[in-house]
Amino acid sequence: MRAMLAILAVGAAIAVPAMDTSARPKPQPVYEPPPPPPPPAPAGPVGLPDRLLSDAAAYQAYLDRVTATAPGFTSGASVAQALRDGAAYEPRAFIRGAIAYAAVAALEDPTFVGELRAAGNSPENRRLMVGYIVADPAYAIINFRASDRAAGLAKEALSGAALRLYAEGKRIKQSAYDVQHQDWSKQDVVDRSGRLAAVEASSAGPIPRADDQVPALQRSMSGVAPLAITAAPAEPPYTPLLARALQVAAIAALGEAGDDAYDQLTALATDDNTASCLHIAKLNLYQCLAVAKPNYEDIFCMGQHAMADTGSCLVKNAGAAMPIEVAPAPLGAPPAAHSTAARRPRPAQG
Q: How far apart are CA 268 and CA 275, in angstroms?
């Protein structure tokens, strides 16, 4: 009996079908959310290309050097050296340096820089903004409220030193009359044709480099050591020269003025009005020297045309006011002649 039950139990166990595990629900795959997109590439640092900063430094050094010219000349050789220094700029290189220097000053306004960088919060925005700025000088002026503050700094950077150059030129010109009691001043210039050729050659080249002043300009743009320039906001409209400076400053504020942008920025750093004015000043200088004979006449040519005329071009094209000079003629004096030669000082009597 027990054997039968064992056999039946084994048979029952064999007859029980296996459990169908295919009916169980399959586990659902776990999907990981995609990683967040990377943040937009940050803007580059505020600044200008090294070569453009070098242009600005050369311009600043020229103004510092020439405005330091003292009227107390003691020889024809000292006059000749000062004359070469005063003429040592090619107009378009001079304008490029002036615009770059004014742009550095404009970048010292933190609100102007902050507004531009806030708007250029992605590479695409910055690319579009640079295109707008290059196409229209008014873009950075109209769309950013602090542009008037940046314009005030740029205008002062251009006109402040230029007014000093103009004033020093007038002092040098006056010294052409005062020096005539010294015998050397009435002697003829040595090698007049060579002196004119040297001045023309000096005028055809770039401004002498002053790379030792570049670090100071870099510190200024970074806010570490601002330039000694203060100014009230300047309301538009702006002259083309000033508008160009703001264009360059706006691109620099966006961090899009790296070394690879030098050619693009150089194309912006021009102004035909200022170039024409400086060209006329150069021609007047050459004509004055061509007919000048004694040393004191070279002093006159330098003061009036190399210095005062150059300063006047910058002041006017920056949109600043020229000094009012009232010099009434003596009673019964004839009207002033218009030729350069007639304006030179007359030889001293005795």
A: 14
| Beta-carbon contacts of residue 137 (< 8 Å; ≥ 6 apart) | 240, 243, 244, 246, 247
Q: Does 111 map to a domain?
A: yes
Domain that holds residue 68: 50-321
User: How many folded domains does the chain comprise?
Assistant: 1
What are the tokens at 131?
């295109």
**Counting every residue, how long is the chain?**
350
Answer whether residue 350 is part of any domain. no
Distances (CA, A) of 96 to 68, 238, 279: 22, 18, 15
Q: Which of 213, 184, 196, 185 is nearest to 289 (CA)?
A: 196
Which tokens belong to 210? 């002053």
> Does residue 220 lie within any of the structural domains?
yes
Residue 283 counted as domain residue: yes
Residue position matching structure tokens 């100071």? 216
- Helices 272-291 and 76-87, axial angle in degrees (round to 10): 160
**HEC profile for 266-320?**
HHHCCCHHHHHHHHHHHHHHHHHHHHCCEHHHHHHHHHHHHHHHHHHHHHHHCCC
Identify the three-state secondary structure at position 168: helix
**pLDDT tens sequence for the chain (350 residues):** 555 545 445 555 455 455 555 566 777 777 777 777 666 678 889 999 999 999 999 999 999 999 999 888 999 999 999 999 999 999 999 999 999 999 999 999 999 999 999 999 999 999 999 999 999 989 999 999 999 999 999 999 999 999 999 999 999 999 999 999 999 999 999 999 999 999 999 999 889 999 999 999 999 988 888 888 999 999 999 999 999 999 999 999 999 999 999 999 999 999 999 999 999 999 999 999 999 999 999 999 999 999 999 999 999 999 999 998 766 444 333 333 334 444 456 544 43
Its pTM stands at 0.84
Query: Among 134, 158, 122, 149, which Cα is nearest to 255's?
Result: 122
- The C-alpha atoms of residue 106 and residue 220 are separated, in whole angstroms, by 10
Phi (first) and psi of residue 292, to 5 degrees: -75, 140
